[in-house]
Each structure stands twice: as C-alpha cells, then as structure tokens.
What does this fold into?
Amino acid sequence: MKHITAIVLAAGKGSRMHSDVPKQFLDLCGKPLLFYSLEAFERSRVEDIILVTGENEIEYCKKDIIQKYHFHKVKAVVPGGTERYWSVKNGLQAAGGADYVLIHDAARPCLTQKIIEDSILTVLETAACTVGVPVKDTIKLVDNDGFGTETLPRNYLWQIQTPQSFCYKDIVEAYEIMERVQDKDITDDTMIMERYLKKKIKVILGDYYNIKITTKEDLLVAENFLKKIKKVVDMNVI
It folds into this structure.
C-alpha cells in the first residue's frame, strides 16, 4: 500500500487581492477559503496532509481551522518560504515517509474528489502528473512593444492547475538540484521535474471550476461554483 500525502500551500500574501487579510483566509460561503482544500483532502484517500502557511499564521491555522473543523489528517503545519517553491520544499521536508505527494494551491478551493482520485490513479501509473484544462481562447505571443508575433495552435495548449502529483523521491531530488543551481525562473513544480530530471509530465483533465482565486471577482465566481459542486455531491449521495 503506497503512502500518499497532500501538501497544501497557503503561505501567499495575495497582493492582487488588495486586502489586509491573506486571501487563503478570506471568507468564502461562510468559511475561510483554505477550509475547502483541506476538506477535499480530508474526505479523500490520501493518508495525511501537510499545511504550509505563513509563520505568523501557524497558530491561527491550528486553532481556528484545523481544530475547529476537525481536520484529523493534517499531521503538520509548517512555515512557508519567501517564494512558492521554497514553501513546497518546506512541505516536502515535512512529508518524509511519503511514497507520492499531491501538491495543491489553497487558492483553488473548488477541488473535487474526482480530481484528487484521478491524480492519485495517474501518479501511481506515471510517477508525475498534473491536472489542467484545454484553453478556450486564442493565445497570441506578444513582443515588448505590444505587437502580436505569433498565434499559437490552440489544440495543443492547456491551462495548468493543481494538484500536481509526483513520486516523492523524484520531486525531492529535483528540488535539491534546483537549490544547488539557485534557479529563480520557476512557476510550478512540473517545470522543476522537466528541467532537472528531464521527466515527461502526464497532463490529465481537471475542471474549469477549479479556478485560482486571484482577485475579489474570483471569490464571487468560486462561490457560484461551490454551490454547484455541493448540489452535484448531494444528488449523488441521494
């Protein structure tokens, strides 16, 4: 039986939200935004959860989220780093003993059980995968002067989401290499695997509901999506 750990990243400042409260703690349908990612993994078949948050928010998370909502699978709450990839590294260190890890941004609260289960099944088979969705719009390369230089073929373009899932020893090795070369040009974990271990990443279908909360308008969209997701879950239970 493989040990599967979820790493939930909630250490960002959310500067584009223009709020004094970090976006992962903003109210969404009566609960902190972070609640929804933790709840999704709590209900899934992952064995445990590592929560990565701001050093000043650790006690708040323990008392007002984990204890309050009875998240029994959270085995550690660790401080994040100055950049996302350092937060992941801290989470990986706390996940020792895992065979596979699912790395998820808490800013994506509309995570479903299907996405989690599909990620687990795929990473067990391929050792590295991410969820994503085909882009709907035409994508154009634009130069520094604002002129379009190329229109990219849309049928090959996907918008990448989280969770991103990996064999634990592979992603740890990739991070160790990245730290040695002090690479700063990293936007997600699949890039690290591709760049340093030369591994192909399987991209599987996520969900257009699985949006990342970046602006206040996104909160309104997510509220709508969560209501629809809950309605579908309730119908399946019945």
